[in-house]
Amino acid sequence: MRLRPFPDRIGTRRSSYRIQMAERIWNAAHPDEIAAVFGSYDSNLNQIQKQFQVVIVNRGTGIKITGPEENVMKAEQAMDVLLQNVRSGTGLNEQTVRYVVSMVADDAAEEVRELSADAVSLTVTGKAVRPRTVGQKHYLDAIASNTIVLGIGPAGTGKTYLAVAMAVKALKAHDITRIILTRPAVEAGESLGFLPGDLQDKVDPYLRPLYDALFEMLGAEAVERDLEKNIIEIAPLAYMRGRTLDHAFIILDEAQNTTSEQIKMFLTRLGEGSKMVITGDITQIDLPDPRRSGLIEAMRVLKNVDDISIHLFSEKDVVRHKLVQDIITAYANDANNERRSAQNHHERKKNKNG
After folding, report:
1. pTM metric for this prediction
2. How far apart are CA 341 and CA 50, in angstroms?
3. Is it the case that residue 199 has pLDDT exceeding 60?
4. Sheet with strand 148-152: strands edge to edge
5. By three-state DSSP, how is residue 150 classified?
């Protein structure tokens, strides 16, 4: 690597500040790998150049990266991580590239490298299920090392999907004998009574995301077979009352819509050799009184209990379309602005009356 001083001039006077410019050659083993890292129409490459203010040129014998020394190093790190993803079969999409680039920019390259390690599980089509963000990896580590985990965060962070993947992994390893998936059947603006069919038909739409995750992991036929044998059970939360759940991996989804009594009832179903994962998004509570959310209370009550982990996702962990992350951030900013406005109004009123 050659370092060259890059003078910053103001008029005819030479400034004492120097930007150390650097050139670095980055090599990949195969042209197909380079094409994958660069992306369609060099879209990935453009993201890296824009983020780190470098110039990247394909010289045929190698990829030359030119720019400020530290930026060149970070651009190379980002390309190394993307290449690692390609070689591990994880693949690259817009969200992955955006996340890798932002994490490398925040000096978290080593943490991101670990994401392409061994797969948690395989889908029915043979696709490896791996954490796609550092937050997801910490969540999976928490599930592996704790009996009860609360996974709390916005939509699109993989809370339920990764919990189901861990449940399937435990079932295949014979660590458990059954998987139990449950959700509270809370009306979110619609009335259950007006839906067609019997009770099961009415609650099935609320459980559909759980079916979808299982179908992807095991295939529809295997899921139907395991449902008949009670190896897998999918049911509304109310069906858990009065039971002791031994040697099971139990997932409570959409827990923000449980009451204090419901979540306490659920937690006390834990039996010998079982694990529990409770997921929810406390910004999307459909209860008549959001302040009565059992999940919010559980976060407070259980925060210091051994063998229980509370994992909080952020908008950085969203693995859906980029707009989902932007929407979540916009709503969070709006809520913060409203809080500040209400607080300022209260203080002005207090000062006026005081």
Report:
1. 0.78
2. 36
3. no
4. 232-236, 178-183, 248-252, 275-280, 148-152, 308-312
5. strand
